[in-house]
């Protein structure tokens, strides 16, 4: 089932999400719905707060970025051909490498894209959808998507990385998003 995406301005997007246990009600269906919602919205990642659930859960599929690259696009990312994973109760262990800029967007903040600097590599401890514990290092585009989605479960948004003047310049657009005045091709909900 395709779920509505929570728009910028909702309190759930600013809340630190809680760990869950394997008996979380309807978890298997929730994960399936998150995949369906993410793909239907043309996203590469989706965190539970974006569907109004304050739990530490996100899904991501960086393979889509590589699959959709033009043949002439330069591919200097070490994580090709990408990764598709479910992350439950994720916690960052370590960040490594230099910060690098990439133009990011967010399903909860439609029609705004900005360059964001993030580290090259992240070491993450998480559970998969079967509650098997992993400690794994990710890099490249995959690391970037993970860090973006991880921010969601920490109550942060990509616009928090922007310089104050740039944020101020975007405030009108952000206000419009929170009031439902932004056109999107997917279902959004506007809550406070």
Short key terms for the protein model shown above:
192 residues, alpha+beta, Peptide Deformylase, five-stranded antiparallel beta sheet, two-stranded parallel sheet, 4 helices, 25% helix, globular, Peptide deformylase, metal ion binding, Peptide_deformylase
Q: Helices, strands, pairings?
A:
Blueprint: E1 5-6, H1 27-40, E2 45-47, E3 57-61, H2 63-67, E4 84-106, E5 109-127, E6 133-139, H3 140-153, H4 164-178, E7 188-189
Active site: 149
Keywords: Hydrolase, Iron, Metal-binding, Protein biosynthesis
Function: Removes the formyl group from the N-terminal Met of newly synthesized proteins. Requires at least a dipeptide for an efficient rate of reaction. N-terminal L-methionine is a prerequisite for activity but the enzyme has broad specificity at other positions.
Q: State the distance separating the first and last CA atoms.
A: 24 Å
Number of helices: 4
Sketch the topology as an H/E string, one letter per element. EHEEHEEEHHE
- What is the fold named in CATH at topology level? Peptide Deformylase
